[in-house]
Amino acid sequence: MKKLNYVFLMMICITAAAQDHAMHDMEGHSHEGHLHDTMVDGKLLVVNPERFDNFVSTLEGKQVAIISVSGMVCDFCARGIEKTFAKDKTVLKVDVDLSGGKVLIAYSQDKNINFEEIQKKILSNGQNATDIQIIKI
Amino acid sequence: MIPPMGIKALVISVFFFHFVNLEARPISYSGGYTLMMESNNMKDSAYYHYSPSYKYSIGIQQIKDKYFNSNYSYLRLTYLLNRRNTKNSQRNLYFQSGLSSDGLDHYFYGTHGDWETRSLYAGFGYKKTMMKTLDYIEQYLQVGVAPYIGEYGDLHTWLMLKSKKNDLTSNWDTYPVLKFFKGNALVEFGYSDTSNWDIHLMYRF
User: Fold this and answer.
1) Which of B151, B180, B181, B186 to mutate to test the interface with A (most CBs of A within 10 A)?
2) Above 0.90 for ipTM, yes or no?
3) Do A131 and A83 touch, CB atoms closer than 8 A?
4) The pTM of the whole model exceeds 0.80
């Protein structure tokens, strides 16, 4: 029982510290002048700003599909999706944002992006693609 | 700073979601291979499986049975009966079965399920093993909490509690488990005064 009490106490301390760290991360990031503020089809891009800007930094003249994915809860899910898209020769770059539930896929400008094809690939990994936004860089 | 009610909610959620994930990920993504190794007071085993699709996996498990002092293999099948994906969670229900190298009168079947978010986990399992001389049932409940949420590729940590019962040993045994998860590798350590170490290793190819 003593051991269990110790484990509970340890869990509470670590969780509290992690929450404090997360609050700190939310403070003080400026979004001005970044591509992630762009509207696509009347909808604002909902992406991790730093992650998105970093992803597109070498993709001038390309297009990026931002896929919303449900059921992506761990690294194994993310790795499976990454491997699936890495096999596609038309894909230039992939990034999986686990926290935001997004997959960013870069294609050349002339690629005709097919959402159904992307949905099938994500389903083959066991998750569901629920939305797509395409932005030209 | 967590408000007082936040601490209360946290303590309650930790209490209720405190059991693990040892049987989690029984199926890989399409075309994926997985190696799982397990060691506890009842057996040592190595299990290698292949997933032709995300719905099922087939594999071979080699077992050193410490209770019956014997060695045998299982040809195993795990099938995903039901999955529900939401934005922040995934829930699964699996059927599992295995046929022993000892013969047709030694096999097992059962079910296990889990629900998880990036910070909470709850799971259960039920498995009935039929042998030439006797049959027995194994059951478990698991809950866990991730003390922090890492990004993809980070080291992920889970603090968990497992409660299991094997007909052969009669009583429920509850003990804490630590799980570490990075890249393709996962390792879990559990320890109880009754059943000693419960160790799981997993690597996905």
Assistant:
1) B151
2) no
3) no
4) no
